[in-house]
Amino acid sequence: MKSKTLLGLGLVAIAAMALGGIHPASAAKITMRLAENQPENNPVSVAMHHFAKLVKEKTNGEIEVSVYTAAQLGQEPETIEQAQLGAIEFARVNSVVVGNVVKEVGVFTLPYVFRDIDHKFKVLDSKIGKEVDAALEKQGLVNLGYMEAGTRSFYTIKGKQIKSLSDLKGKKIRVQPAPISIQMVKLLGATPTPMNYGEVYSALETGVIDGAENDYVSYVTSGHFEVAPFFTEDNHLSPPAMLLMSKDKLDSLSKEHQTAILAAGKEAAIFERDLMVKGNEEAKQKALAAGVVITTIDNAPFRDAVNEIYAMFPDYADMLKRIASVK
After folding, report:
1. Residue 119 needs a FRET pair 20 to 30 A away by CA distance; which of 72, 252, 254, 288 works?
2. pLDDT per residue over 159-208, tens digit each?
3. Are residues 85 and 195 both part of a single domain?
C-alpha cells in the first residue's frame, strides 16, 4: 500500500510539472547567448547560426545557443567585456577590437602583415595563433576559432574619391576604435575618426565623415555602398574575426560539453572561412551592379607610408619576424 501511495505521488508530481511547463527531460537544458554585430545576411552571421546548430547536435540538445545579430547585445567593445565578465557566453568579434583588451592579438591587425589569405591562416593555425590564444585565456576569454573577415579597403562619399595616396590627405575616415587603426590612418595622411560600426551609415550619409574602411561583405550588407559609392582597393588590413567564449562559462561545463563546444567552434570557423571568401566576391559583384565605382590601385605608396608603424609597436617585433618566416 505504501509503495502504491508513493507511486501515485510520483505520477501526480510529474503531471504537475508537465502542466506547469516543466519537463523532466528538459530541466537540465542549458541556454547560452552569442553576440554578433553583423546583420543576418552577413556570412559570418550565417556561420554563427551554423555554430549554434553544431553545438546542439554535439550535445544532443542539452545546450542551445541563441544568436543575437545586428548588435542586439551591444557593439563589439561591450560584448567583449560582457564575455569577460560572464554576462554572455559568446562574442563574435573582429580582432582589431580584441587587440584593445589583449595586446598580443594586435599583431594580427597591423597593416600588410599577411602576404595573402593562405599565409594568414597558416600563421593563425600555427603555434603563433596558439600563443595568442593562451594570452586571451589569461584575460578570461577562450578563442574558439579564427575566421575570415575579409580584406579591408577604403570607401568614400561623392566628391571624395580616392585614386592615390595623396587623395587621402585631410579626409575624415572612420576607423575601429583601436590604436593601430588610428595610427595607420594618420600615417596615410587622413584624419582617423573612431566610431562604433552601428553609427557609420548615418555619419557617411550626413557627411560627418568622408569615408570608412571595410571588406566588401560588410560594405554591402551594411548598406554603406548606398551612401559611399566609391571603393578603393588598397587592401591595407586583413585582420581575422574571432569567436570568443567566456572562460568561466566554459570551465563551468562538464568535460563532455566543453569538448563539444570546442569542436563546434573549430568546425564553424572552417565553415565560415570558405563562406566569407565566396561572400566577398559576391558582394563585390553586387556593388558593381549597384553602380559603385571600384578603383584598383598600386598600394606600394600606401605600404611605404605606413612602414614606420611597426616601430611604434616594438612589442610585436619578434612576432612579426616569426609571421614573416611562415611559408
Report:
1. 288
2. 999 999 999 999 999 999 999 999 999 999 999 999 999 999 999 999 99
3. no
Pair (204, 279) in one structural domain: no
Q: What are phi and psi of 244, to 5 degrees?
A: -100, 145
Residue 94: all three cell numbers together: 573582429
pTM above 0.70, yes or no: yes
Provide DSSP, 84-144.
HHTSSSEEEEEHHHHTTT-GGGGGGGSTT-SSSHHHHHHHHTSHHHHHHHHHHHHTTEEEE
Tens digit of pLDDT for each residue in 218-243? 999 999 999 999 999 999 999 999 99
**Does one domain contain both 170 and 310?**
yes
Cα–Cα dist 55/189, whole Å: 46
Looking at the structure, tell me whether residues 216 and 321 fall in a common domain: yes
Angstrom distances, CA of residue 143 to CA of 89, 102, 149, 163, 241: 12, 12, 15, 38, 10
CA distances from 121 to 45, 229, 273 (A): 20, 31, 10
Domain co-membership, 47 together with 88: yes
Ramachandran angles phi, psi of 176, nearest 5° = -65, 145
In Å, what is the CA distance from 72 to each residue of 2, 78, 230?
A: 55, 11, 29
Does residue 305 sit within a domain?
yes
Whether residues 101 and 244 fall in one domain = yes
Task: Please report which confidence band the pLDDT of residue 28 belongs to, taking 50, 70 and 90 as the band edges.
Answer: confident
110: domain CATH number? Answer: 3.40.190.170
Q: What is the 3-state secondary structure (H, E, C) of 253-276?
A: CCHHHHHHHHHHHHHHHHHHHHHH
